[in-house]
Task: structure prediction
Amino acid sequence: MTDAVIQVTDLQKSFTGKKGARTAVLKGVYFEVRRGEIFALLGSNGAGKTTTVRILSTVLKADGGSAQVCGYDVARQADKVRERISLTGQFAAVDGMLTGRENLLLIARLRGVADPANLADGLLERFGLAGAAHRRADTYSGGMTRRLDIAMSLVGSPTVLFLDEPTTGLDPEARLAVWQTARELADGGTTILLTTQYLEEAEQLAQRIAILHDGRIIANGTLGELEELLPPAKEEYVIRRPTLEEVFLAIINAQQGGVAGQGGTVWQGGAAEQGGTTRQSDAIRQDATARQDGATMQSSATRQNSAYPDRRAVL
Ligand SMILES: Nc1ncnc2c1ncn2[C@@H]1O[C@H](COP(=O)(O)OP(=O)(O)OP(=O)(O)O)[C@@H](O)[C@H]1O
Ligand SMILES: [Mg+2]
Result:
């Protein structure tokens, strides 16, 4: 007996195209998600992530195979499954005619929550929407709409939360807020199945990551396990152009006499119309070379290196 909250076995789904031809999207998908786990499903556009989420959330019927959520079969016991899950789809399900607060109240009443007003106000506060609570949702920015959508999906404390690309279109701050919420929910025992195009998101959030490709899961494991699928890390040197920041720091350093203790004075002193520029660039180049040497010496411990060390090494 496993503690799997989501169990997917040989799931299959085809769609009929315009010319009547069937295209197999899921050709036998297997995976499990454990209680309180954040599980990321990755895959290219059109790989079938949303299709999988729609089948697991009872929106769509599979052609073959089976799936259980909280021990209930998604096809035969859809009502039981729906009582326990929540779905934040790829496209926000917010009603633009209603205010943010009204959207939350509506869902809370539909879900039979005991004190809808209290819950709505708490969620508005938690998602930074209290100030916009009484504005129609169609006046919200994309990020605000997404946050409201996620807040709505938390009404009724679902056991399982499906987040289909929850942070697409969010600014970095809003993305961090969603990550924080997902972590808190998982810590509280909510099981989360997440799809994302942002690999960093999976890296940051997920305990386990699966890659869906050509209708099947071709890799599934922790980040460390997936990394082990690659050949061992090897040391290599990468020569790249300096960034403007590095040029800036090199110039400043040369100006302050950082190279040979004299470069700055020479070219500041206007010592020579003819020599100034040359000396200036010499000093900067020397400075950059010195960094390069430093970088080379540092390199043995690093997997990858460049001619220009990071800012801390420069200062
Ligand atoms: N109702 C449908 N009718 C016909 N084809 C569909 C239907 N739903 C999905 N598809 C097709 O199934 C494939 C998988 O779609 P799906 O939305 O599951 O991909 P996805 O992995 O979520 O992609 P994305 O990263 O772009 O969101 C696509 O080729 C899509 O066009
Ligand atoms: Mg999708």
Q: What stands out?
A: The pocket of adenosine-5'-triphosphate (ligand 1) is lined by residues 15, 25, 43, 45-51, 90 (CB under 6 Å). The chain has two domains: 35-57+84-227, 237-314.
